[in-house]
Write a structure and sequence with these properties.
- This protein has helices at 13-24, 39-44, 46-71, 81-94, 100-114, 130-140, 150-166, 186-201; strands at 2-7, 27-29, 75-78, 122-127, 171-176.
- The protein is of the alpha/beta class and 204 residues long.
- α3 runs antiparallel to α4 (81-94), α3 packs parallel to α5 and α4 (81-94) packs antiparallel against α5 (100-114).
């Protein structure tokens, strides 16, 4: 089974992935952030590095999906291949930070890749307000995230909401991060787990 956690920067994807992998005994599959050779450059010069960064993520996530399906195990994935193409790349294109030529090239590659893989059995979307995102980004203190602008986060949030409204690739669970603190509250985590149990039982 393939479970995926989606959400904006700072929504709590990695934390929830870790907690659920421990609870269920699922294998966690984390986003390649620390070893990403483009992230620092991207946040310093988005226009120059946007295409390189998106291609890196696309390649990385495509490989992750192939490994997930090949493993035959239940794996929980931190961020999906769909978020890059539905949210991040089109947002960079709309902001004038990725050329139309590069965006079309990227989209063609994405369409080819996703035609060859299966979507997640369950998608967990972490919905969060800008203030929650900013607070959580500040808390984790990643240096390259210091330069993220509020309008950039806002644009991403709008695109996430549009994508989730039309998401129809599989089962979907929406978790409101503003109302829950699953990182520190056992009760809140249990609440999320109960909702996941209800969804998973419908998968069999």
């Amino acid at each position: 089974m393939h479970i995926a956690v989606a959400g904006n920067i700072g929504a709590g994807k990695t934390t929830l992935t870790e907690l659920l992998s421990r609870h269920y005994g699922w294998l966690p599959n984390y986003e390649d952030v620390d070893d990403n050779p483009y992230l620092n450059d991207f946040y310093n010069d988005m226009q120059r590095w946007s295409f390189n960064l998106q291609i890196y993520f696309l390649n990385s996530r495509f490989n992750q999906i192939l490994e997930i399906r090949k493993s035959g195990k239940t794996i929980i994935q931190d961020r999906t291949i769909y978020e890059d193409a539905e949210i991040f790349a089109p947002n960079l294109h709309a902001m004038g930070l990725m050329s139309t030529r590069d965006f079309n090239n990227y989209k063609t590659l994405f369409d080819l890749m996703t035609s060859l893989v299966q979507p997640p059995d369950l998608l967990i979307y972490l919905r969060a307000s800008i203030s929650t995102l900013v607070s959580q980004i500040e808390k984790r203190g990643r240096e390259y995230e210091n330069s993220i602008r509020l309008d950039y986060l806002r644009q991403l949030n709008d695109r996430y909401e549009s994508w989730i409204k039309k998401y129809s690739l599989g089962k979907l669970l929406i978790v409101n991060v503003d109302e829950l603190n699953f990182a520190t509250s056992k009760e809140d985590l249990s609440n999320v787990i109960n909702k996941i149990d209800a969804q998973i039982h419908g998968l069999f």
